Every structure is written in C-alpha cells, then in structure tokens.
Amino acid sequence: MKEKVKEYLLIITGVFLVAISLEYFFIPNDIAAGGLTGLAIVINHYIPSISTGPLVFIMDLFLFVIGFIFLGKNFGVKTIISSFSLAGIMTIIEKFFNPQALTNDLMLAAIFGTLITAIGMAIVFNANASTGGTDTIAKILNKFLNIDIGKSLLAVDFIVTLLGALTFGINVGLYGLLSVIINGIAIDKFIEGFKVCKEVTIISTKNDEIAKFIMDELERGCTFLKGVGGFTGKDTFVLYAVVGRNEFIKLKQFIGKVDPKAFITVGEVHEVMGEGFENIK
After folding, report:
1. Does pTM top 0.85 for this prediction?
2. Quick one: how far is CA 82 from the chain centroid?
3. Using CA of residue 118, residue 129, residue 131, residue 142, what is the dihedral sign?
4. What top-level class would CATH report for the domain 196-269?
5. Domain ranges of the chain
6. What confidence tens digit (pLDDT) does each residue in 78-98 have?
C-alpha cells in the first residue's frame, strides 16, 4: 500500500512540474512544444475563451475514449490519473494564480521549460505511468500501421509544432521543435539518472566481513569470484556487488575502516534487474 501511495505521489509531483513549465514558460510565450498541450496552445490562440487547462482535459477525455475503443484496456489507472491530473493542475493555476511568463526570452523559455518538463515526465515514466495524450495516438499508429511508437510520437509532435509555426511564426515554431528534440533526449538522461547504481569489485583480506556488511547492513546480495593474483600467483577471491549510490557511500566508509589497503573498482550501471531491484519484464 505504501509503495502505491509513493508511486501516485511521484506521479502527481512529475505532473506538477510539467504543469509549471507549461504555464510559466511555454504558454505565455506561445511555444507549442508538441503534445496535447502544444495543440491546446494553438487552439487557445484562435478560441481564447477556452483556456488551455480545460482544452487539455477535453482532448485527453476524447483520446481516452478513442484509445479504449482501439487499444482495449491497455490504459492503466496511473496513466488516467497522470493525464487528467495535468489538466486539473493547469486549470487551477490558470484560475487562481494568473500565471505570467518568467522570461520573455524565447531561448531561455524553451530551454528551461523543456528541462523542467523532462524532469517531470521522467518522474512519471519512472513510476511506470504515462502522461497519456499523444502517446495514445502513437500507440494506435503503431498497432494498425506498424510504425514504431517513437517515430509515431515524433511525427505527431512535429505536426503540432508545424501548426505552432503557422500560427505564431516560424521563429516560435522552431523553438517549439527545439523543445521537442531536447525533451526526448533529456527524458532518457533523467530516467537513466534515476536508475543508476554502482557496480563494485573488491579485493581484500577482509572479504568475509565486507560481504557480511553488504548482506546484513545494506541488504544486498554479493558474489565471490575465484581469481589468481598476477603478482603473487596465489589464489584469491574477488567480491562483486551492485548497490545504490547512497549504499555505496556506506560501503566505502566501512571498507575504509576494516581494510584501508583493499583494492576497489567502481563502475556505473544504468539499469539493474533481478532480486532486490526491478523485476525482469
């Protein structure tokens, strides 16, 4: 239950960051950076009586129905919550906080708005959810036309940025396209950052004590690998483990106490699956 609550809190946090970037960077500067929100910005220009928050909600609802018809029950509760929460938070901000552009410099708005959006979406994706919206269109194209989801999503976002260019001018349209490109790259990098772990190999005369610390204190597994010392020619054991970043700090401090002469190599791994980490899917 706690895990579920934590996941939903992460989803709301990620969606909140996306809403902030839209309301304080993209919308005031007319940057249509793809997706339903970009399309809502374009529509709002022609129909200013409907604000972007309710527009996103209406389009999300429409796409949800279309997705349910064509894709079946592939829409999880998390995706529904994240997509409608975005529209809800945007509506609240527009109604009660009268959002203004934090900067009128289009380059700064595109860069900072995109980075905040990427962090928010990475948090949502890392909680095994989706922001819905144009993802639904991409999945439908993938199912019936066998077009890769990534390419489908890029095509949809390109159409939205093209509409933005026709509506607000080529310069603003190009900033929207720049945001789409940066966003795709940044999301992957942020998601990798969430999953990064430390891969540690240790050669020490105190391997048994270190292994006990890893298993009992850090609650991680470890493996002994047989080796032969190149200089001494004697049999030895190499201790191998994968731990989280914070856990590695504790491990390093412990090794420093029990065996300051230990030999350690450390590498970064971007995804770990198996017991104690993510399930293999």
Report:
1. no
2. 13
3. positive
4. alpha beta
5. 2-194, 196-269
6. 777 887 888 889 889 988 998
